[in-house]
Design brief:
Length: about 120
């Protein structure tokens, strides 16, 4: 009888863990910092927009990841980011020259991987 109770408890725990893992992989869970939807910061450029760079990024799983990448890029003077979880990319507008290395460094310092910058 005790063994049956232990098995039932383990099965229940596995069901909850599986449900959480499924939500996490779909980007619906609070994997990176809280159960509420984070506020995604918006930034306007000070000067005239010179151009855009598109960064392909892997490792983002949720809206908290998007907010983290957005904040990291927006901290760079002259850069404003719009990050898409679905596309796995960040479109960075800039009003002064910003090197690809600088953009890559701030994103990878947050724990994500930059695949390409165009």
């Amino acid at each position: 009888m005790a063994n049956a109770i232990v098995v039932i408890v383990v099965i229940i725990i596995m069901l909850f863990a599986g449900k959480g893992a499924y939500k996490h992989l779909k980007g619906e869970g609070a994997c990176c910092g809280g159960g509420s939807k984070p506020e995604i910061p918006k930034k306007k450029l000070d000067g005239t927009k010179l151009g855009e760079k598109t960064m392909k990024i892997t490792g983002m799983h949720c809206e908290n990841c998007v907010a983290s990448v957005t904040r990291a890029i927006n901290r760079i003077d002259g850069a404003a980011a719009k990050v898409s979880l679905k596309k796995g990319e960040a479109v960075v507008s800039y009003d002064r020259e910003i090197s690809n290395e600088e953009l890559k460094k701030v994103v990878e310092d947050r724990g994500y991987h930059v695949v390409s910058i165009q």
